[in-house]
Amino acid sequence: MDFVLDPIDRRILRELQRDATVPIADLALHVGLSQTPCWKRVKRLTDAGVISRRVALVERNKVDLGLAVFVSVKTSRHDQDWLDTFARTAAAMPEVVEFYRLSGDTDYLLKVLVKDIAAYDAFYKRLIAAVPLSDVSSAFAMEQIKYTTAVPV
After folding, report:
1. Which residues, in sequence order, are CB contacts of 96 under 8 Å at separation 6+?
2. Is 109 strand, coil or helix?
3. Local structure of 43: helix, strand or coil
4. What is the pLDDT of residues 66-95, one digit of tens each?
């Protein structure tokens, strides 16, 4: 990383991860700065790409997406054309909220949020119709023990 974070930058990031809507005056107070230097630091962190965006976190159960499914994908194809097609297809599916290429026995892992098993089945059918896959395995989350979007800075 070319960008060096000092302790105040880290405090700013922790505060903003807790609540990105905090007024700059309150943020400055929490991190021990006056408003202008605090604003300049936030701008610098944003310009450097350390802060990539500010979003609203939606409670998935309140919007009828109570089922989280972890989808493990194995493929016998590892060429760039296949990867581009699979990545574009999976990334375009709104149910896919996280998507990773892995080392080990599983090639890709997708986190999918859906209403119920029927909605997952519809998603699954669209996925396997879109691109050839060797093996797809699904694990349904029984309980969410911890969830955070905060990066430990």
Report:
1. 90, 110, 111, 112
2. strand
3. helix
4. 999 999 999 988 899 999 999 999 999 999
